[in-house]
């Protein structure tokens, strides 16, 4: 295979491996809309990176992390329904990001690449960044696995047992923000949440335990990356959407199988 395909494959697998367990928590805790909000804010990070002439990955990560913290604070105040708050921030940050990016008259910006991913242009540096962040996120997930499961099953009971619920919940949101920041290269702002949710939803129909579901979601995500890249290479289709469509196809296949008892 050409070098650019190897880099694209490795970058996609790096994201899929960590998106599996993180996406499982997103499915269990019904955080898909939260993921969308963070993903839409990524474009604002791109605009900030261009404005300040800093690394776009760092800028996107900082904006996603900042928005995650803001969401945690706003959710704790409960002055407005969570879904309403997410809807407002999601579309507002996306619109602001699009406007800011469009104002850079002297800078050539490929909006399609940011919105739908540009996996085939992944470089060696991108692969190193993705695997470094993925390894860090997976390590934290392993350390927090039991507390995360506890607050997912029953937050009040977990709090009674001495688990710092707010801290663990915040950590989960920050981890999701980091993964969304690195996934932008693979599937773009508009499709990031699909890579988190679809493999996890498919794995849920094939497994019995949380650990099996997390591992299964990672494996299905890797399969989606490989088949999506193959489709993109042979039929000249956009790589990011092809990966997401492959994941959707895998989910449809799981519908043919009865869920385990």
Q: Any descriptors?
A:
single chain, 261 residues, mainly alpha, ABC transporter involved in vitamin B12 uptake, BtuC, 80% helix, globular, transport, ion transport, High-affinity zinc uptake system membrane protein ZnuB, cell inner membrane, transmembrane helix
Descriptive account of the structure:
With 261 residues, this protein is mostly helical. It contains twelve helices and no strands. Helix content is 80%, strand content 0%. The protein is globular and about 55 Å long.
Query: What string gives the helices and strands in order?
Result: HHHHHHHHHHHH
User: Which residues sit in consecutive blocks of at least 5 with pLDDT less than 50?
Assistant: none
Q: How many structural domains can be distinguished in the coordinates? A: 1
What fold name goes in the CATH topology slot?
A: ABC transporter involved in vitamin B12 uptake, BtuC
Count of runs of 4 or more consecutive helical residues:
12
């Amino acid at each position: 295979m050409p070098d650019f395909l190897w880099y694209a494959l490795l970058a996609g697998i790096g994201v899929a491996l960590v998106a599996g367990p993180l996406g499982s928590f997103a499915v269990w805790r019904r955080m898909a809309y939260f993921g969308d909000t963070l993903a839409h804010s990524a474009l604002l990070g791109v605009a900030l990176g261009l404005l300040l002439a800093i690394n776009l990955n760092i800028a996107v990560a900082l904006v996603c992390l900042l928005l995650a913290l803001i969401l945690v604070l706003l959710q704790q105040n409960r002055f407005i329904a969570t879904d309403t708050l997410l809807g407002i921030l999601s579309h507002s940050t996306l619109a602001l990001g699009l406007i800011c990016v469009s104002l850079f008259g002297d800078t050539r910006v490929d909006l399609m690449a940011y919105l739908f991913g540009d996996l085939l242009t992944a470089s060696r540096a991108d692969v190193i960044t993705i695997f470094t962040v993925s390894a860090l996120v997976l390590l934290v997930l392993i350390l927090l696995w039991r507390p995360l499961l506890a607050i997912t099953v029953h937050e009040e009971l977990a709090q009674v047992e001495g688990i710092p619920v707010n801290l663990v919940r915040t950590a989960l949101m920050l981890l999701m923000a980091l993964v969304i920041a690195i996934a932008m290269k693979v599937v773009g702002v508009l499709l990031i949440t699909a890579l988190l949710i679809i493999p996890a939803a498919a794995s849920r129909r094939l497994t019995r335990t949380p650990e099996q579901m997390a591992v299964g979601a990672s494996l299905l995500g890797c399969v989606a990356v490989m088949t999506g890249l193959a489709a993109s290479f042979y039929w000249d289709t956009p790589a990011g959407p092809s990966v997401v469509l492959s994941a959707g196809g895998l989910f449809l296949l799981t519908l043919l199988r009865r869920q385990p008892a």
